[in-house]
Give the backbone structure.
Amino acid sequence: MAAEDAKFIRDKVMAHNKWFEECIPMIASENLMSPLAKEMLISDFADRYAEGLPGKRYYQGNIYVDQVELKAIELAKKVFKADFADVRPISGTVANMAVLFAFANPGDTITTCALAQGAHISTCEFGAFGQRGVNSVNYPFNVEDMNLDVDGTIKLLKQVKPKIAQFGLSVFLFPPPLKELQDTFNEVGCLVWEDCAHVLGLVAGGQFHDPLREGVNIVSSSTHKTFPGPNHGMILGQNLTDEQEKKVQKAVFPGVTSSHHLHAMAALGITLAEMDVFGKEYAAQACKNARALGEALYELGVPVLCPDLGFTRSHAIAVDVSQFGGGKDCAQLLEDANIICNKNMLPSDTSSVRPSGLRLGSQEMTRLGMKESEMKEVASLIARVVKKKEDPKKVKEDVKELKKQFATIQYCFNAGEPAYGYHRLVE
């Protein structure tokens, strides 16, 4: 019976692989690793343990682990031009928790964005911020620009005088106005922290913005969104004191991790090396593709936020489908057509269960070689389902035909390898 259970699980995973071979994945928080990075996940690193820092482990057997981790740290500093890097957090939320443990105590005030403005759940009262017991105060937000109200934010920072000014969104369309706020940060004397999970690959490729040169002291992130690495996390720092760096390291371990998933850490190192070579080209194309997708949908009569601003400067666009049944129903219809995206709250929404929006990301299909012309084709497929209400089963066949042309990984050391399932490295 247990063998049948194991076969059931494997069969379902293989079915998932086959399904995604025939899908157009557009969830803005997902991506594809290179085959070389994936190989790290099935190495012996997956079965081993390392606590502490390289050269200061609590376990033996880490000779090569230490060398890999030091190389990953070196690459992270190089790619992001950072003074400090910790590659041990096992997710973006764990990285956020480590920053909280390092620099915030219960009762401290942190300024941040609101969930309806596109913030990540870890910054909410029911997330990591609430669990840490900090007092969160939300910035004023300009809905038309999908960005912070600069004058209102300056006023708020001076009034509240937060211990930490935190930034970062899950619907990250435009760079935060960090340069405009830098004088205020200095006047208030707060630590400046940005969660760059969604745009880390764009930052690595020199697109979007450069937080560590724009007044940010600490960057926390996951490593599997626009940054096409494993499900893992990372913390970067600039202009930190030695004491602050040690606080971060202690918050990571023993604060919020034990062993730090060595196979994923190695895969992160591979991805950092690849982004050092291919990141600029990849990030630029992802941004071009997102703008092309937004423009094409808008021209087809599907409302996309911020048309006057070019829809987006990142990999993501926000689509208002309230007149077509709302985000929940539209996301399901698109899944039925093998177009994978997610419902998403827009600033006017009050319900995360039945929001009015969809969030679409270009990064994964960019990784598979799509460019602006293909984004127009994707927009047409989306409009057929969402606006014209064509039978998703009929649209699915056209989705599968389009996807056949884009089945191999690009922008990596072994470009051209299959994107899904097994390949030569794991046979």
Summary: The CA atoms of residues 154 and 181 lie 7 Å apart. The chain is about 45% helix and 15% strand. The chain has two domains: 37-272, 278-426.
